[in-house]
Design a protein that fits this description.
55% of the residues lie in helices and 19% in strands. It is built from 6 helices and 7 strands, in the order αβααββββββααα. The strands form 2 sheets. Strands 1-2-3-4 form a 4-stranded antiparallel sheet, covered by helices on one side. The longest helix has 26 residues.
């Protein structure tokens, strides 16, 4: 009997709150494969076209390989992950981390490639594609929770409208998905 109580007391000694999980971009690997495929297709097309024209040389092949590598670098997706109080973007040029529970501003940069720019109280800055948040509800949930905490603390002075637009877009996408799955589209 003493053993049972020892086991129960050992189980009771565990941390009362399990550590919150880290949310990751679940589509990152697919995006990476797509960027590799695009670069490989371009390389194959250029090499075949050059060979078909009879002008393929080692120097031209090196040029085509370089061009395909540049395309891969341009298309390389940033790997986004978020946990309680932070968001990290890892790309080819390094890692950028922002404290999402201490956000100061959230801006939406419109243009050819829409970007969401997050800044925290320490001056750290992260740019992410809003489509990553739309495609990954756990990432959005983590960011939204922490942004609300920042607003409650009074540090988030600019960006409520940008977050609201992203939230509306996510709600719209979710509703469309529900309609498609249920056959009501």
């Amino acid at each position: 009997m003493g053993r049972r109580n020892d086991t129960q007391s050992a189980a009771g000694a565990r941390a009362p709150h399990p550590a919150r999980e880290v949310a990751h971009d679940c589509h990152w690997a697919g995006d990476l494969r797509s960027s590799v495929r695009c670069a490989a297709v371009l390389l194959c097309f250029l090499l075949l076209a050059d060979r078909g024209a009879g002008t393929l040389t080692a120097a031209r092949a090196a040029l085509w390989v370089t061009l395909a590598a540049v395309l891969f670098l341009v298309l390389f997706p940033a790997r986004i992950s978020a946990g309680e109080g932070w968001l990290v973007s890892r790309g080819l040029l390094g890692r950028h981390r922002v404290r999402t529970d201490r956000l100061v501003s959230v801006c939406c940069l419109d243009g050819v490639g829409q970007r969401l720019v997050l800044r925290d109280t320490s001056g750290a800055r992260v740019e992410i594609d809003p489509r990553v948040l739309v495609a990954n509800p756990p990432l959005w949930h983590r960011l939204d929770e922490d942004a609300r905490l920042s607003a409650q603390r009074g540090s988030l002075t600019c960006g409520a409208s940008a977050l609201r637009r992203v939230s509306e877009r996510i709600d719209r996408e979710t509703a469309l998905t529900v309609f498609k799955v249920s056959g009501l589209d």
